Amino acid sequence: MRAFFHALLYKPLYNLLIALVAFMPGNDMGLAIVIITIILRLVLHPFSISAFRSQRAVQRMQPKLRELKEKFKDDQKGFAQASMEMYKENKVNPFSSCLPLLLQLPILLALYWVLRDGLNSVDTSLLYSFTPVPERVSAVAFGFLDLHKSSAVIAVLAGAVQFVQAKMMQAPKPPVHTKGSKDEEIMSAVNKQMLYMMPLLTVFIGWTLPAGLTVYWFFSTLLTVLQQWYIFRQLDKEEAATTKSNELSV
Length: 250
Known about the structure:
By secondary structure, this protein is an all-alpha fold. Helices cover about 75% and strands about 0% of the residues. Strand 1 and strand 2 (about 145) form a beta hairpin. Helix 3 (about 45-60) packs across helix 9 (about 210-250). It is elongated. The termini are far apart.
């Protein structure tokens, strides 16, 4: 399994990173990290679309789910059956957003190791025959950032975009006059804690990692936020067009 992971993911990503370094001005590792992050986000874009569509659909269904929860507040089995029927009627799979994430994890893990190893030196034994070997690897990114050392600034930026992403993922709040169930209140409290805890955890971890890894974390999360904003915007336009079409047909 380890050999399969190494041959299928680690080695191709390592070669891509070193090849990018060879073509970057000044053999800048920081620029190579940004480019490889963009490439991976583009490759994973179809999976991201599927995940974000599912997330938005689940968000849109929250008011109806709250109504069902109120209707079946003393019947958990009835609520589970009714909610699954609602998901089925709306052609929504609440777990489909998890599959793209599971598919991405091996790639992201391999890239983490590639960046960790690539920051130190070029291991020519891992290179394909056609991979160009850079004369040197500049670990001073963008002319000022030492990728070997931790960076508080990049860690804070990574935490900030993590907060934006978490905020975008939250479901709409229920109306003020609507009193949620005890389970709903507990879930709301947990979500609120996660909204702040995850960015703080990102800052803490990013502060302890070499800046090269934190740069990747920052740009990857930033691109995810931009993807999510764009896809949600397109979905809003689709919903508005569908609503207008239905009104005109009536």
